């Protein structure tokens, strides 16, 4: 475990992607301020998507799998093509590599989105602390425990509890990103080519974001779509990741690395 985490923190490519996420979210804050002067903090977050043109959101969320391909998911390709995988297998057994490799993959994807979004949330809370403007009309307050409204008329619940709504979407977005990192690592072990992997995962991702409503609703608070739909996407991605882990485990235990 220590080897993998040391590798993660020393990997320049992975660190650069994290920096890129941070910069894109910072650019979104600047664009929001330049366009509208900003809203109340909970409506100025990156995931809320209220900046004009949504350019930063498109660059980050539409290309999300591409960033993940070059993160921790890339290790299996790198290790396999360089022969490093066999030396790791000699020091550690296959089950250990499979388990820790996927734990670190999920951890990387989750933290990539979670930490970036949390930093963005902190930034807009400070920058727009004096702003009171809200881009929606709040008709009446809904109880935080009103789960019927939460699941089926979510916008009313979210506007009553914008801070909690932001945090729920930050966590959902982070879990989906972590799952995608594991799914990409599964594609890697079968393609053994960065070009094929990029093509496959981009095709899958664009299928998910091109249908209506798309998986993007699970990232964005304050939309007309319900939490029932958002949770359905979340559960679907978790199930797909679980299937990938089962396939991966069988491959790792049976593949002849010699």
UniProtKB/TrEMBL annotation:
<feature type="transmembrane region" description="Helical">
    <location>
        <begin position="167"/>
        <end position="187"/>
    </location>
</feature>
<feature type="transmembrane region" description="Helical">
    <location>
        <begin position="56"/>
        <end position="77"/>
    </location>
</feature>
<keyword id="KW-0472">Membrane</keyword>
<feature type="transmembrane region" description="Helical">
    <location>
        <begin position="104"/>
        <end position="128"/>
    </location>
</feature>
<protein>
    <submittedName>
        <fullName>Uncharacterized protein</fullName>
    </submittedName>
</protein>
<keyword id="KW-0812">Transmembrane</keyword>
<keyword id="KW-1133">Transmembrane helix</keyword>
<feature type="transmembrane region" description="Helical">
    <location>
        <begin position="231"/>
        <end position="247"/>
    </location>
</feature>
<feature type="transmembrane region" description="Helical">
    <location>
        <begin position="16"/>
        <end position="36"/>
    </location>
</feature>
<feature type="transmembrane region" description="Helical">
    <location>
        <begin position="194"/>
        <end position="219"/>
    </location>
</feature>
């Amino acid at each position: 475990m220590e080897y993998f985490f040391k590798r993660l923190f020393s990997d320049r490519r992975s660190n650069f992607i994290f920096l890129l996420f941070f910069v894109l979210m910072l650019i979104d804050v600047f664009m929001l301020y330049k366009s509208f002067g900003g809203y109340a903090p909970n409506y100025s977050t990156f995931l809320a998507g209220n900046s004009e043109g949504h350019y930063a959101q498109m660059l980050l969320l539409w290309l999300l799998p591409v960033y993940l391909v070059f993160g921790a998911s890339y290790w299996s390709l790198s290790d396999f093509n360089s022969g490093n995988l066999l030396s790791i297998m000699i020091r550690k057994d296959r089950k250990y590599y499979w388990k820790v490799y996927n734990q670190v993959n999920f951890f990387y994807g989750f933290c990539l989105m979670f930490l970036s979004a949390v930093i963005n949330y902190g930034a807009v809370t400070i920058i727009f602390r004096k702003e009171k403007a809200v881009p929606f009309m709040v008709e009446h307050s809904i109880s935080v425990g009103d789960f019927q409204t939460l699941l089926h008329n979510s916008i009313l619940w979210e506007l009553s509890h914008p801070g909690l709504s932001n945090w729920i979407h930050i966590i959902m977005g982070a879990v989906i990103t972590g799952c995608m990192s594991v799914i990409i690592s599964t594609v890697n072990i079968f393609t053994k080519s960065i070009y094929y992997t990029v093509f496959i995962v981009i095709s899958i991702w664009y299928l998910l974001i091109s249908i209506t409503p798309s998986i993007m609703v699970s990232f964005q608070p304050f939309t007309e779509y319900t939490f029932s739909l958002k949770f359905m996407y979340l559960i679907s991605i978790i199930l797909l990741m679980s299937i990938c882990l089962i396939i991966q485990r069988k491959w790792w235990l049976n593949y002849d690395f010699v």
